[in-house]
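hiii, so i know i said id send this last week but things got crazy w the move. better late than never?? heres the sequnce for the chain we talked about at the cafe, plus the structure i predicted for it. fair warning i was half asleep when i ran it
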Amino acid sequence: MGDALLQKTYTVDFLTKKRVVNNGIVPQYYVENSHEAIIPREIFMQVQEELVRRSKGHISTSGKKRNFSANHVFSQIIFCGECGEIYRRVHWNNRGKKSIVWRCVSRLENTGLACHSRTVLEDMIGIATVEAINKLIGQKDDFLTILKENIETVISETDNNIVSNIDKKLEELQKDLLKLANSKEDYNDIADEIYRLREERHKALAEEAGKKGSKQRLEDMEKFLNEQSILLEEYDEQLVRRLIEKITVYDDKLTIEFKSGIEIDIEI
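okay and structure toks below
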């Protein structure tokens, strides 16, 4: 994103030119816009947020960590309405009839949870997503009003002054640190405060990126509804990836949650 951290290493022997990793022995300097960025800052921060989300995976109700997977469009977005576990894709051979189904992992492995949730045919989930999207399109005027209100809410909650205020404090502390370093006085307290403010700044940037990501998802749904004038006639995997966040399976319905936050129940 065009930034640089200076003095990540330092020279311990000027004769041999030996350099070692700087673990706080000498000051480090974080410089913004030091070179041409490869990607915009906002996208970089959104990617960091997504990397953290994927590294955490899904912690199931049994306490087991489910690693992120993108093998299938429905991977890790289908959840059990009874026990809260994820659904897993299974190639099923029932009395000689082969099919692809999704089942709660509590019924596939020992999770310590007693679950009697239903098994759902993959084709049925695809049909349900088409029906949910078509419901959105059929009631687009109502949903567009909700989306516009949600976008305005996200904008009003965004505070762009937090990062600039931290930057001012960091600039002042860097000057103080240089003065102390040049006069060979102890600057550990200032260095610790600089590290703390950098962490605070990174957190603020991540939160800001998260809000911008929410705004983009809302705007993407708004754009889709404005552009889509006819109902879908068949299942579209790309639209599912683009629009749908989560599917929860109940005994009599699927609750489909869109990335914009809208939820639609489909009886199956």
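btw The two ends are 47 Å apart (CA to CA). thought thatd interest u
miss u guys!!
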